[in-house]
Amino acid sequence: MQDLDQTEPLRRIQSALDASREVFARFTPGEIEAEYKARHSPVTEADRALDTLLRQHLLREGEGWLSEESVDDRLRLGKARVWVVDPLDGTREFVTGIPEFCTSVALVDNGRPVAGGIYNPATSQFFLGSLATGVTLNGVPVTASRKNDLQGALILASRSETERGEWKQFEHAPFHIQPTGSVAYKLALVAAGLADATFTLRPKHEWDVAAGVALVEAAGGFVGGPDGAPLPFNRPQPRLPGLLACGMPLRDELLNLINPSLPASARRP
After folding, report:
1. Do 182 and 162 reside in the same domain of the chain?
2. pTM exceeds 0.90 for this model
3. How far apart (Å, rounded) are the C-alpha atoms in residues 197 and 180?
């Protein structure tokens, strides 16, 4: 982003997420009717209302749009700046009343998330930041964890992955595993230093993680694919091959853990 643009996107993000409070106030988590999309993915009236609101607050002429709840407009591929949003990440938790859901907003500039905001109305946590400004949680500056070894580290795991037994291979690892809903919310907690890391080896959509990637990197942490490579955004098929996010000192140890067959020389810095 150019100098004049460094704070303006954050003002738009903050305005959009502030406005989302009014939408959430119309619903009671745990008392929500849901429909089901492909692969038994739930969607609610709140998802759709938030999508409409975010578009109104964020999108300007010349910018692209990618949202879980909008038909993909491929014109975004010709835009340098693209808003990548998940109106309600953690819809399953929202429907069941578990306080691990959020609205996730990112600005992607030439394929890289450069600014993001994540708001969890159930916990009243508002994460906001950019590569130019750093990250705040409810207005207070925060940074990613500086923990330098996995002994006793707090690692956030997908609740659905743990329920399927996909984390059993790590049950004797020296860190504490905490199942948590919403990958966007997990990334926000890592960005704020409230957890040391999160990772998944399952593919994720760009809208699931773009804001969290921006926040973790802005907070001085590391985010990459399972091989440590940077994650590209605003692609024709907006799916990513899993990811690892952590405080920078844990990067190499975690990459060795989740991808032990990959030689260090093949990993991206």
Report:
1. yes
2. yes
3. 12
